[in-house]
Predict the 3D structure of the following.
Amino acid sequence: MNILTFDVEEWFHLLDNNSTMFEKDWIKYEVRIYDNMNKIFNFLSLNELKATFFVVGWIAERYPDIVKKIDEYGHEIGSHTHYHQLIFNQTKSKFEYDIKKSIQTIEDIIGKKVKYFRAPGFSITEKNKWAFEVLYNNGITHDSSIFPASRSHGGMPNYSKSIPSKISMNNLEIKEFPINTFQIFGLNYVFSGGGYFRITPYFFIKKFSKNSNYIMTYFHPRDFDHLQPIIKDLSFFRKFKSYIGLKECLPKLDKWVNDFKFTDLGTADSMINWDKSPTVNL
């Protein structure tokens, strides 16, 4: 099963970078979300695809027409927090305030319950797994925040199942759709979204996909915008990771969705026998 998802944020919503970190900084940058979202809408329409969109609440608050359009096109909408901050840098109460604001903002726009969530930067780790309690208590039933490998923003390399599974913790249960990994020489390699997808040659993506029973994608509007300005204070590594392969990303994705079948998270959920799915105790 291959799941198509997008994290709806602006091109400058880069994590852990001083000049793009907080809301007060964001108004300094040009608006590119409309053109980039239209690319995604057109792409999905041409390929007759449905996807799941994890929306930053700040985007929903500022550009509600974008969220309405996602809903009108029949796509699913989940939360990507309100202020797009790394969760492991927040207290439990601060994160709860953020997630409540995000959910309420989106629900007020579309009139539907928000039950899906993804953390910015996959920033739920072993040290802040209390985040799942906050999500559960605020009506989130499906999560896609687990990155079962090491990464600059944390990850959870000890998470034992990089397939749909049930998280059990303190008498709560959440359905988890982690990012998929592919084993190369005993190491977990990620290829299905963001900079990982852009940097991986399509030959390997196709090969990995043929040998994968589960793929969770994650793309951002900025992944398809090769004309976006370069943020000057990024390190060399961050510039490389943030800007490589932007021009080729949409054509590469177009090949992928035509070589393999993709669906949204809700449809994938209905295909799973959860009684036989593994449970991961946190």
